[in-house]
Amino acid sequence: MALLGAAAGTCLPLRAHATARGSAPVILVVGDSLSAEYGLARGSGWVALLEQRLQRQRPGARVVNASVSGDTTAGGRSRLPALLERHRPDIVILELGGNDALRGLPLATTRDNLRAMIRASRDAGARVLLLGMDMPPNYGERYRAEFRALYTDLAREENTAVVPFFLAGVADRPDAGQHFQDDRIHPNERAQPRLRDNVWAALQRLL
């Protein structure tokens, strides 16, 4: 499950590399329902749209979507080692943390899990792109600020790429309601191209 938010941002600077394994990279996406096409027609989510664009520019490129609706950072952390061994990705995109907040888990636990995932990916030879999230206003501005900062601070500490707010241009627009499903939690098909573009802007630097 993903959350509405209102903290738009741009990608932080990162070092550019050529992929270490050639011109046809493997990208592993580990996320929750935002990336698992919850409530969407198969093939219409941002991950599928990203793969379509990537294949046009890098023939043979492959995107593995290992996202699970309802997943937490603890779940992602436990699943990651097997995914890294099986798919040997060049780049890992981490889109997790919203469900931790919904369940009231300590921010320190979320941070520790994400840090472990970043380091495990790096140890496996992959670069990492971290997708940041926000919480609804009713969680209080102090908590929201700490939650948002978790992603950017962690990316800075671990010297990894980050999109500070994955839902920028979707959840923070005046007509946001038209870009979400009836539950007002999950973006609809109209929003998926923008989510892809938010990721693509940072991903290009890693490629």
TrEMBL record:
<dbReference type="Pfam" id="PF13472">
    <property type="entry name" value="Lipase_GDSL_2"/>
</dbReference>
<protein>
    <submittedName>
        <fullName>Esterase TesA</fullName>
        <ecNumber>3.1.1.1</ecNumber>
    </submittedName>
</protein>
<keyword id="KW-0378">Hydrolase</keyword>
<dbReference type="GO" id="GO:0106435">
    <property type="term" value="F:carboxylesterase activity"/>
</dbReference>
<dbReference type="InterPro" id="IPR013830">
    <property type="entry name" value="SGNH_hydro"/>
</dbReference>
<dbReference type="InterPro" id="IPR051532">
    <property type="entry name" value="Ester_Hydrolysis_Enzymes"/>
</dbReference>
<feature type="domain" description="SGNH hydrolase-type esterase">
    <location>
        <begin position="29"/>
        <end position="190"/>
    </location>
</feature>
<dbReference type="GO" id="GO:0004622">
    <property type="term" value="F:phosphatidylcholine lysophospholipase activity"/>
</dbReference>
<dbReference type="InterPro" id="IPR036514">
    <property type="entry name" value="SGNH_hydro_sf"/>
</dbReference>
